[in-house]
Amino acid sequence: MARKVIGGLIQCANALNDEKASVQEIAEAALERHIPLIKEAGKQGVQILCLQEIFNGPYFCPSQDPKWCDIAESIPDGPVCRRMSKLAKKYRMAIVVPIYERASVAGVYYNSAAVFDADGSYLGTYRKNHIPHTNQFWEKFFFKPGNLGYPTFQTAYAKIGVYICYDRHFPEGARLLGLNGAEIVFNPSATVAGLSEYLWKLEQPAHAVANGYYVGAINRVGTEAPWNIGEFYGQSYFVNPRGQFIAEGSRDKDEVVVAEMDLDLIEEVRRTWQFYRDRRPDTYEDMSRQLP
C-alpha cells in the first residue's frame, strides 16, 4: 500500500504593524491571525503542518531592540506551545511550530522549531544552526547558534526534519537530515525580495534532489513596519525528491499550501540516483577544517 501523506504550509502577513502597540499585543495578534489558517489546514485533512519562521510575531531582526525578547517562551511548556499541542491533538495533525525560544539559562535565546505529533505529544526541538549577522538581519543579537545538531522526528505519518531560513544556504546540514532519516524537510523562513530571491526556487529543490526527500519551504508575506526592509514574497512550496514543484503558494496572500506526498517515491528515486551509496565521507575530512 502506498504511503501517502498530506502536508501543509502556512504563509501569513504580520497582523499588527503598529509602533505604539506592545510586544505582547503584536505577538497575540500574529497568533490569532494564524489560528483560522491552522483550523483550515485541519479541515483540509493536512497531516503534517509547518508554520513560518517565528510565526507568532514580526521578523524583528532589522532592529537590535531587546524588547523583542519578551515574546520568547520555553519549549514545550510555554503558552503558545501548549496551544499548538491542543490544536495538533484536535485535528490529528503533527505541527512544526517555529518560535523564539527562551532557554533555561537567563538571557539565552534560540531561533527554534518545536515539533508536536498528531496526538499533541512533544517530539523535540530543532534550533537554527546558521545565524546570519549583516545589515538588516542582526540575528546574532537575538539568537545563540543551535546546539542540538540535525535531529529528525518520527511523527505518526512520516519522519521529518527541520531547517530554518538561512540554514538553507548550507548543504551540509541538509545532507545530515537525510542521513538521519528525514523523509520530509521543512524550512520555515522570513525572506524578502532582493539579493537571495533567485535562490528561493533553486537551493531547496537541489537539496531535495541531492538527498532524495521532499522539501516544504515556507515564507511569510507582506511588509513589516517600522523596519520596511522589503517585501516578504511568499511563494511557499513543496517539491518532491526529483525536485519537481508539486504545490506552490501566491506571492502576497495569507494561505495554506497543501500537497499530497507519496513517500514510496523516495525509495524509487534513491534506487535510480545512488548518492548515499556512492558518497565518500572518508575523503571529506577537509570540509571540517577551520579556515585560517
Describe the structure.
This protein is of the alpha/beta class. It has a single domain, classed as Nitrilase/N-carbamoyl-D-aminoacid amidohydrolase (4-Layer Sandwich). The protein has seven helices and 16 strands. The strands form four sheets. The protein has a six-stranded mixed sheet with strand order 5-4-3-2-1-16. A hairpin with a 6-residue loop joins strand 3 and strand 4. It is globular. The N and C termini lie far apart (53 Å). The mean pLDDT is 96.
Output the strand order for the largest sheet. 5-4-3-2-1-16
Per DSSP E runs of 2 or more residues, the count of β-strands stands at: 16
Q: Provide the CATH architecture.
A: 4-Layer Sandwich
The share of residues in extended strands comes to 25-35%
Uncertain runs are: none
What is the class in the CATH system? Alpha Beta
Largest sheet: 6 strands, mixed
Alpha-carbon Rg, integer:
18 Å
Derived structural class: alpha/beta
Helix content: 10-25%
Global shape: globular
Oligomeric status: single chain
Q: Element order, helices and strands?
A: EHEHEEEEEHEEHEHEEEEEEHH
List keywords for this structure.
alpha/beta, about 25% strand, six-stranded mixed β-sheet, Nitrilase/N-carbamoyl-D-aminoacid amidohydrolase, globular
Question: Can you lay out the helices and strands and say which pair or pack?
Answer:
Blueprint: E1 4-11, H1 23-43, E2 48-50, H2 79-91, E3 94-102, E4 109-116, E5 122-127, E6 133-134, E7 137-138, H3 139-142, E8 152-154, E9 159-162, H4 171-179, E10 184-189, H5 203-211, E11 214-219, E12 221-222, E13 232-233, E14 237-239, E15 245-248, E16 255-262, H6 264-272, H7 275-278
Parallel strand pairs: 1-2, 2-3, 9-10, 10-11
Antiparallel strand pairs: 1-16, 3-4, 4-5, 6-7, 8-9, 11-14, 12-13, 14-15
